[in-house]
């Protein structure tokens, strides 16, 4: 089924940018789509076309979302295409936000989630390869995000590997915020923080290089605080939000997805961000083997190319944390080996 809604006529001269969002009637999309349409990603002068996908049984709900987008009369929203056909959603897109995936149900093991969602991402990769622009930038949000991204990327050989990423920006933002709260400073005063590895409880939120207002460290960031409060709080924040809201984080996840893509497009002006990207781009740096989608500290230049922050000093604590998250990602990869294109 294809519902096409033409939004109000648009007078700007820039050609519109096409943005695909999957899982369009879900929680994250209910925030993400409206922020995208308001210009939060590409600014107030860039018209966009939203191409939104969800399953056939979700089309009625998706129609409601499209009606609401229409009712906002966003000046930048040139067109909305809502569909259950994946080839349509990816046609000619410049950006792909891969949000659609099955949530973990009661009694479901992580392995079941890996398998079921992994299968979704085989077709996603194939369709991106066939229909998206070869310059398309992809962010994988649906969990298990790193391994889903690996599967999609393996099925899209015509799109450069470096255009595939998985989201650890929510964890990065959580880390910045926890440190700012502890130091009692604005979040903008905290920098040089990163997330290593998998978007899961083995991720390593690393404050070893933190700066507050440009100065290294802070008296309140004791080893005791870092190990017993900061790291577990960031690692378990998703579960804490589910316990409080009875629903997983949605607005903050949508916000992080936009932060991730905006910085990837416009650059970080020397600042560090965390993104999970193909490890073979960095050939064993920090002991990470090739063939994983791994979160690193990156800077992004003004042309939208990301660069690894290299030669950071490590110690046995850091090495052990990295080993745990590398091991988990390798295990996940093993479990979905049959879904990866050789
Ligand atoms: P949700 O359940 O509200 O929405 C998911 C959407 O995906 C639904 O509309 C559903 O119909 C769709 N979907 C399900 N199976 C599909 C399939 N086979 N093909 C296409 N679409 C399908 O979930 P949500 O809260 O929006 O979260 C979406 C995903 O993002 C989840 O996997 C969640 O765990 C993940 N997440 C990731 C992060 C992160 O930091 N990387 C943060 C929060 C949530």
From TrEMBL:
Q: What Gene3D superfamilies does this protein map onto?
A: Lactate dehydrogenase/glycoside hydrolase, family 4, C-terminal, NAD(P)-binding Rossmann-like Domain
Q: Which residues form the Lactate/malate dehydrogenase C-terminal domain?
A: 168-338
Q: Which GO terms describe its biological process?
A: malate metabolic process; tricarboxylic acid cycle
Q: Which reaction does it catalyse?
A: (S)-malate + NAD(+) = oxaloacetate + NADH + H(+)
Which NCBIfam families does its entry note? Answer: MalateDH-SF1, PRK05442.1
What PANTHER family does UniProt report for this protein, alphabetically? Answer: MALATE DEHYDROGENASE
Q: Name it.
A: Malate dehydrogenase
Q: Which organism is it from?
A: Blepharisma stoltei
